[in-house]
Design goal:
CATH class of the largest domain: Alpha Beta
CATH superfamily of the largest domain: Vaccinia Virus protein VP39
Number of helices: 7
Strand content: 25-35%
Number of domains: 2
Largest sheet: 7 strands, mixed
């Protein structure tokens, strides 16, 4: 049950804050509810931060594929992605960040989980790689300058509720250099479509979401990365307008 103010306004059960326009209260559902073992309303950053910390502490990371995503490897090996500056939101254990840094890319990675960043920091230090790591909320703590050639993500958009997605796309477009590219591995449609994270997307949903700030949107089917052989995800490449 959520906290209530004197006038019965609901509050976040995790931080006791009120719902505001750019940070509304949402019901704990699906994977997040399972991780937190609680019911009620919370801000998305609060629930995402706490649920991810629990997941990484337990080693219960269902989205981790234990390798760089094959679609990313193909983009680098075919030189579709040339070495440059990359921002990766939600790197998790850092398979993609480590791969990119090992192949001449300058990587900045931001994760909402301090546990994930701590684990990744130890890994890159052991490998002698230079990866700039940030603990924070991608909607509020990402860099603000137009300094990146690429954004690569595999686990963020599918975690964001509809109310947060336009803000995310605007923020990502704003940190890319002119003609910079957004590259995402995005979960494809499911039947029925999920009502909690991990969400799923149709081609039309992706095009509508990106088209305001991006052009030349390419969407192709790719596998999840779990060696299932099923092309149930989308590789999305879009150029900043």
């Amino acid at each position: 049950m959520s906290f209530l103010t004197a006038d019965k306004e609901p509050r976040c059960i995790l931080c006791n804050g009120l719902s505001i326009n750019d940070n509304p209260l949402l019901e704990l559902r699906g994977w997040i509810r399972a991780m937190l073992e609680r019911d009620g309303l919370a801000h998305h950053p609060c629930m995402a931060r706490m649920a991810n910390d629990v997941a990484f502490s337990k080693g219960d990371i269902p989205w981790d594929i234990s390798q760089p995503h094959p679609a990313l490897v193909n983009l680098v090996e075919t030189k579709r992605m040339a070495p440059g500056r990359v921002f990766e939101p939600g790197p998790g254990l850092g398979h993609d960040a480590v791969y990119l840094a090992s192949n001449g890319f300058r990587v900045t990675a931001l994760d909402i989980s301090k546990e994930a960043v701590s684990m990744l920091r130890k890994r890159v230090e052991k490998l002698g790689l230079d990866v700039d790591l940030i603990v924070g909320d991608v909607l509020r703590d990402s860099p603000t300058e137009e300094e990146f050639d690429y954004i690569f993500e595999r686990s963020v958009l599918q975690t964001l509720p509809p109310s947060q997605r336009a803000h995310y796309v605007l923020g990502m477009s704003g940190i890319l250099k002119p003609k910079g590219e957004y590259i995402g591995i995005i979960r494809g449609p499911r039947t029925p479509m999920p009502e909690s994270q991990p969400y799923a997307f149709t081609r039309n949903m992706i095009e509508q979401l990106l088209s305001t700030h991006f052009r030349n949107i390419e969407i192709t089917r790719v596998a999840s990365g779990f060696n299932s052989g099923q092309s149930e995800y989308f590789l999305v490449i879009a150029c900043r307008r």
